[in-house]
Structure formats: C-alpha cells, structure tokens
C-alpha cells in the first residue's frame, strides 16, 4: 500500500515564485494529512486533494511561514464553494485556535470551529488518523514547537519541524525510513540546524531529506554538507517531489 510524502513547499521565510513555504502532504491509501500550512501551500495542496477532503492537519509551530495558509483555508471552507462533511481535526501548538480567530476577527469572532476541530499538541501527544499513528515530540525553537513521527506499523516517517540542536532529534529520527529535517543556515543557531547538524541528527534514519534551507546556502551545498555526516541517501525537498516512505 502507498505511503508517500509530497513536498508542497519548503521555502523560508517567505514564498518564492513556484516555491511555497513549508508544507507537506502525507498520504496512506485514502488518508490525507497536511503537515504545516506555510504561505502558498494551500494552492499547491489542491493539485493533489481538496482541503475539504483532508483527514487531518498537523502544525509544528505558529511562525507565519508554517501556518499562514490556514487563514485562506477558513475562507475557502466557510465562505466559498467548498463544503465540509465535518470539521477537520487540526493538531497544533497551544494557542492555535486563538491565533487563527484573532487574525480573522473583524466585526466579531470568526467561527473557526465550523472548519477546524482544534486539538492542542504536547510532548508525547499520540493520535490515530486512518491507519496512521502520529506521535508528537517537543523540539527546541525558542517557543512551543514540535516534530512528529508517523507510522503505519511497518514504515515510519518523521518530520523535525523547525528546531535547533536538541536531544529529542535523535529519538525523532531513530528507526525511521524517511526523516524530513530542516537545515536552515550555514551558521550554528539555537533555533535552527545547519546541514551538518541535520546529518548528525539523522543518524538513526535510513534516508534523509533536507527542507527549510535558508538563503545563506544553496540546496546543493546543504545536501553535500549533510552527506558528510550521514551515511545514507540525502535529498532536498524541492516542491512537487513525492517521496515514498
């Protein structure tokens, strides 16, 4: 059975032409999960699935380049031509519902509960979506931020979200068939990883895919530097690429 990750976008901190910010579509048989909703990813998502047909949305943290497209999603599902069978489970950090509601408020509070069934994440949070099991892991980004492990019982995918070096990354990547990991900058930081640090963090994974590569380094160089510290295959999360877990 198919278990795939489609890159909707991986740019940071703003979208470029044909390169949305962070967003990924995880599919397993008939299950569809949108991971992170950076600017431009709602349009890219619709090349594969209608937002009305999503089984869940999972948000790593509340920086705009990972969450902003939840706002037009509300317009699409509440005020336009798309119709929901039921509110979409939306897993996000503490404060997710308040953040969306505050932005959309105009003459009164936006009824986002008609679109999203918001469930707040915490370290160790577990849930099931279709045949997939999701486990959330807290990472280090200066405020609440999370990575996630997703498994169908036979294969496992993990996503780092945005994070600096932390002990949680080794556990996040351990035993995964595919580890999608940020590699934002060439300079060490408490809130982001260098490609070399991403390579070290992925030690327990079978494959490494770099994402969220910042403007200070090219994707080609990021892959090269990560590969110096990771013995398995290393790739870059270019938009529209589909990875099989």
Automatic annotation (TrEMBL):
Q: Which GO terms describe its molecular function?
A: 3'-tRNA processing endoribonuclease activity
The record's annotation in Pfam families points to: Lactamase_B_2 (PF12706)
The record places domain Metallo-beta-lactamase at: 20-200
Stretches that traverse the bilayer:
none
What name appears for this protein in its UniProt entry? MBL fold metallo-hydrolase
Q: Which organism is it from?
A: Amycolatopsis echigonensis
Upper classification of the source organism reads:
Bacteria, Bacillati, Actinomycetota, Actinomycetes, Pseudonocardiales
């Amino acid at each position: 059975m198919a278990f795939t990750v489609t890159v909707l976008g991986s740019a940071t901190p703003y979208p470029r032409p044909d390169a949305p910010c962070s967003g990924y579509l995880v599919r397993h048989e008939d299950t569809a999960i949108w991971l992170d909703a950076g600017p431009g990813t709602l349009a890219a998502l619709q090349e594969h699935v209608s937002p009305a047909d999503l089984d869940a949305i999972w948000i790593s943290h509340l920086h705009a380049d990972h969450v902003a497209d939840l706002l037009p999603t509300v317009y699409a599902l509440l005020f336009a031509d798309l119709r929901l069978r039921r509110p979409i489970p939306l897993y996000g950090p503490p404060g997710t519902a308040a953040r969306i509601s505050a932005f959309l408020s105009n003459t009164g509070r936006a009824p986002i509960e008609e679109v999203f069934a918001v469930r707040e994440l915490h370290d160790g949070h577990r849930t099931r979506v279709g045949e997939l099991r999701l486990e959330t892991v807290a990472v280090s980004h200066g405020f609440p931020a999370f990575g996630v492990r997703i498994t169908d019982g036979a294969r496992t995918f993990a996503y780092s979200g945005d994070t600096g070096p932390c002990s949680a990354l080794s556990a996040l990547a351990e035993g995964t068939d595919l580890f999608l990991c940020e590699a934002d900058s060439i300079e060490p930081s408490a809130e982001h990883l260098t490609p070399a640090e991403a390579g070290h963090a992925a030690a327990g994974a079978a494959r490494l895919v770099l994402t969220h590569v910042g403007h200070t380094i090219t994707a080609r160089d990021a892959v090269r530097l990560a590969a110096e510290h990771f013995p398995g295959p290393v790739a870059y999360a270019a938009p529209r690429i589909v990875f099989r877990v």
